[in-house]
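Chapter review: from sequence to fold.
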Amino acid sequence: MYDNRNTRLTKWLNDGIPPAQVAEWAGNSVAVLLATYARCIDGQLPDLKRRLEAAGDLPERELPGAG
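The token string follows.
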């Protein structure tokens, strides 16, 4: 049962569902959720960079891993 929960939470985070929403569904705080699952979030930086560029909000310095 716990493995299924971990898999589902990781999938939701990797699918780009906001951590606040995932934490609510999981019955955790965002801090607890990210302390446990932040290392599992993968591949979202390129999308974030595109969204920031589109909004004109990209920092001057290159984001780590955004290359």
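Two observations follow directly from the output. The chain is about 60% helix and 0% strand. The radius of gyration is 14 Å.
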